[in-house]
Amino acid sequence: MIAFAPALVPLLVTLPLLGAAIALIAGRHRKTQVAVSVVTLTVVCAIAAVLLFVVDVGDRPIAVSVGGWPIPFGIVLYVDRLAALLVVVSSIVLLAVLLFSVGQGAADGDDETPVSIFHPSYLILAAGIFNAFIAGDLFNLYVGFEILLVASYVLITLGSTESRIRTGVVYIVVSLVSSILFLAAIAMIYGALGTVNMVQIAERMGELPQQTQLTLHLMLLLAFGIKAAVFPLSFWLPDSYPTAPAPVTAVFAGLLTKVGVYAIIRTETEMFLDNDVNMLLMFVALATMVVGVLGAVAQAELKRILSFTLVSHIGYMIFGLAIATPAAIGATIYYMVHHIVVQTTLFLAVGLVERRAGSTSILRVKGLMKIAPVIAVLYFIPAVNLGGLPPFSGFIGKFALFDAAAEVGTPIMIVLMVAGIVTSLLTLYALMRAWNLSFWREEDDSAETEARISYLGSAPAAGVETQRRVIPRIMTAATAGMVAITVALTIFAGPLYDVCTRIGAALLQPVTLEQLEQEHEDSTGLDEGGER
Fold first, then answer.
1. Are the C-beta atoms of 294 and 231 separated by less than 8 Å?
2. Is the dihedral of CA 249, 253, 259, 263 positive or negative?
3. What is the Cα gyration radius of the chain?
4. How far is CA 162 from the centre of its chain?
5. 116 contacts 27 by C-beta, under 8 angstroms
């Protein structure tokens, strides 16, 4: 192990918080805030890449106890392959969306993203996401959630329009309910087991009666299910995300629900491996996939279409987790990485459509292929990727999930495979219909075309049509960069999938407290008594 690697772990959280403080002090000095935000996220990305290399090549996680407290009494920051990979992907996405927002802010001023508020809130959001990924105990995971949620409350209501305040209130109330459930579950676990350290919880969980284990298990699933937006706990998402500014919507769609999915994966594989609820998860996955994609088909507004597809594709991740084999968990991690990148890219592309056409309604937008061919390409590539067409990463991830399900071969697995295929086809239909109407349809199309889409007339509207605005080059470049990353997920699918396979195998072999203490000692050079 590289000697300085453990010292890098706390920087994943402290650097964004420090950057947020500097950005807040900088006030309305736009260039200073932009520079601080870009440098901070770039450095975090580099640190995460180093940590991923260290833990993957060394085949040993890094455990750091903050403040030098002996494990399990201190706050443990735990970086394994999964945590490091997700921090790398998240920091890349956050950086790309930041550059997109910089272009939007430079062109529009503070109307959409007030710069004095946006940058500090954005970096605090990043700190919360990173902290959640590397948390080694439940309470620190809760703190990570609360940090990112506090920042998201500010970001989702930027601009203070009536629609943003109204949907922001719904988002805040739902998030608070989820947090209360999570905190109550933590209190019950601590009362029953005397610890909040996830490794120690896993070792002591077997001492509790099965009914008590199931109660604690379901409470955590309920809290994380709301955050991950699984059916029927996803009702809040399609109305909350589309009203926010384009950069905010993109980063929320790409990352926030995945933090919830990550928490479910951690608790299912680490704390409740012997008390599984896999059959329940399968039914949840089935309902999430089907209901989400049917909602997408019924929409006439691009952001709402993407919001419903976001819900439906969370179902694939729950499906993979419910299969509970190393191959399935590895496929789930690969699909999660794919979805973070592709979903964010699609929302950025829709942000470009909104600026160029003045609307995101597929009933209003026409003829963009002629006037904005670059945007057409930037939308089309991630759209067919999300739809699962070969050879893209969406197809690779879904095929891997279906292959893992086929190895199990039970009737419910067959049903879920069929549902997954139908969901993929309907996703492709919804996204390609939107592409056809917005880009291929001519301004002077006949009444026959309008009649064929008249059934969408009762779908929720895209809101007030805005003025068409110039698209700064940096916004297009940021979106194009994300499209390039979606293509890279296909080109480098082999090495990435190998890492994900190793993650899947490791997650189903939980770490013991003795191993955690040894990893901490190896990481820091301190023994259990805190001496060298």
1. no
2. positive
3. 23
4. 27
5. yes
Residue 8 contacts residue 43 (beta carbons within 8 Å) = no
In this predicted structure, what is the pLDDT of residue 357? 85
Other CB atoms within 10 Å distance of the CB of residue 514: 10
The answer to whether residue 269 is domain-embedded is: no
Lowest mean pLDDT among 67-76, 126-135, 230-239, 455-464: 455-464
- pLDDT > 60? residue 526: no
- Show contacts of 222-225: CB within 8 Å, 24+ apart: 222/181, 223/178, 223/179, 223/181, 223/182, 223/185, 224/178, 224/182, 224/260, 224/261, 224/263, 224/264, 224/267, 225/260, 225/264, 225/284
Beta bridge partners of 474: none
The pTM assigned to this predicted structure is 0.92
pLDDT class of 115 with cuts at 50, 70, 90: low
Tell me the one-letter amino acid at 297.
Answer: V
Domain count, the chain: 1
The string of DSSP letters for 293-344 reads HHHHHT--BHHHHHHHHHHHHHHHHHHHHHH-SHHHHHHHHHHHHHHHHHHH
DSSP codes, 465-481:
PPPP----HHHHHHHHH
3-state SS assignment for residue 197: strand
What single string gives the DSSP state of each residue in 331-347? HHHHHHHHHHHHHHHHH
Residues 429 and 55: their CA atoms lie apart, in Å, by: 41
Kindly state whether residue 478 falls inside one of the protein's structural domains. yes
For residue 447, the tally of other CB atoms under 10 A from its CB is 7
The C-alpha atoms of residue 393 and residue 396 are separated, in whole angstroms, by 5
pLDDT tens track for 483-515: 999 999 999 999 999 999 999 998 888 777 676
What whole-number distance in Å separates Cα of residue 418 and Cα of residue 526?
Answer: 53
Residues 6+ apart with CB under 8 A from 331: 320, 397, 400, 401, 403, 404, 500, 504
Tell the residue number behind the tokens 């490791």, with chain if given: 506
Where in the sequence is the domain holding 457, given as residue range(s)? Answer: 277-463+471-516
Given a cut of 50, whether residue 173 has pLDDT beyond it is yes
Average pLDDT over residues 30-55: 93
Is residue 299 within 8 A of residue 372, CB to CB? The reply is no
Tokens for 473?
A: 């080059």
Q: Are 71 and 26 in contact (CB under 8 A)?
A: no
